[in-house]
């Protein structure tokens, strides 16, 4: 399993410093949506510059104008870009076509995607599907059980990620379960007293 | 009926120049999602600076972290900010709470929102609900018929907007129909040979 560490809601200077410090300490460095919307492509460029080892994911959360947004994000340095599963099939197909043509990776964020919609968008073979529990939602979920249930319903989907308040215990349980390719962690690492140490704990904790 | 003119997929310099030229020639100036994602809050600030008459809408397309994204957009100068109807109810409630507290306006983009979901999110009384046909979708729609059908199903929703390839003939028909508060026009104005003249034609065409 791979660790993706999400940087969000900080200044660009702090984001770049944190990205530089986390480079190589996390498999994937996520530039969160707040940085996309606060700073635009400049933030992708600046973070790209300080990464030598970690892969860069840009959490664009594209929901329309798929080709344009994906082309821009890749052009400025992203390796992986996210689109919303809630987008139309045609938008997702446009994002996927750009990703495949550039030998890059699309991640599909399944926030608020119900089972019916999921069936309609399950055929992007190389895409990573990210189970996602909104930070704004008041109800909580059991991550391991959610993953098992999803896998049972959609066994054809080979690449899975999960996001939403994941802690070290949950990450370890997910690693043991063996169905998830990427566990996405945000504040549990970046808002820790010692972010590098926290990332290292997660990286060690998810090795099986 | 009010005209909202959307600026998208141009450089920040071109966007600012176009916004300055369109100020007062369109009721609402929309800073499109491409400008949000390409330039971030800087674009809101720069466009705000050149507007003296038109209202500024920022097409943030917020789908998570509602309070943060809305606070940021208002802080940098937006009068109206968009959230996706596809977001969770809790995210929309967070966006609405920020908007109401600051005496600003939320627009809910109904892209890919089905009837079942629409019933769940129909209670934001002061919000503007925007019917939206994705530019990525291959199928076309009859706008006047779509609006009539929506109004019949959701008569309690008082504030309606519509977006997606609207031309002058459609805009005039919508004005005559009298159900829409805001018609949103993009390339039919901004990519016209004479954008100001095109905006003026729309503004005159929708007066009833």
Summarize the structure.
Two copies of one chain form a homodimer. Chain A is α/β, with parallel strands linked by helices and 208 residues long.
Walk me through the structure:
Chains A, B: GO terms for molecular function: 3-dehydro-L-gulonate-6-phosphate decarboxylase activity; orotidine-5'-phosphate decarboxylase activity. Chains A, B: Keywords: Lyase. Chains A, B: InterPro entries: Aldolase_TIM, OMPdeCOase_dom, RibuloseP-bd_barrel. Chains A, B: This is 3-hexulose-6-phosphate synthase. Chains A, B: Residues 2-202 form the Orotidine 5'-phosphate decarboxylase domain. The structure is a homodimer of 208-residue chains. The first copy, chain A, has an eight-stranded parallel barrel with strand order 1-2-3-4-5-6-7-8, surrounded by six helices. By secondary structure, chain A is of the alpha/beta class. Chain A has a single domain (2-205), classed as TIM Barrel (Alpha-Beta Barrel). Chain A is built from ten helices and eight strands. The longest helix of chain A has 13 residues, at 89-101. The mean pLDDT of chain A is 95. Chain A has helices spanning 12-22, 33-39, 41-50, 66-75, 89-101, 115-120, 143-153, 168-177, 187-190, 195-205, and strands at 2-7, 28-31, 55-62, 80-84, 105-109, 128-132, 160-163, 182-185.
């Amino acid at each position: 399993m791979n660790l993706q560490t999400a940087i969000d809601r900080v200044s660009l200077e702090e984001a770049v410093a944190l990205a530089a410090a986390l480079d190589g300490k996390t498999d994937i460095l996520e530039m969160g949506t707040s940085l996309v919307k606060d700073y635009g492509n400049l933030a992708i460029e600046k973070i790209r510059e300080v990464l030598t080892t970690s892969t860069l994911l840009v959490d664009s959360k594209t929901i329309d104008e798929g080709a344009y947004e994906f082309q821009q994000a890749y052009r400025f340095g992203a390796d992986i870009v996210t689109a919303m599963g809630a987008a139309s099939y045609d938008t997702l197909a446009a994002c996927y076509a750009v990703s495949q043509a550039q030998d890059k990776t699309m991640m599909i964020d399944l926030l608020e995607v119900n089972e019916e919609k999921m069936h309609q968008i399950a055929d992007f073979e190389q895409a990573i599907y990210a189970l996602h529990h909104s930070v704004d939602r008041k109800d909580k979920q059991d991550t391991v059980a959610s993953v098992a249930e999803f896998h049972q319903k959609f066994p054809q989907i080979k690449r899975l990620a999960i996001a939403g308040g994941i802690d070290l215990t949950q990450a370890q349980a997910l690693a043991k379960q063996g169905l998830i390719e990427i566990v996405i962690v945000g504040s549990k690492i970046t808002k820790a007293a010692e972010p590098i140490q926290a990332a290292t704990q997660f990286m060690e904790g998810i090795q099986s």
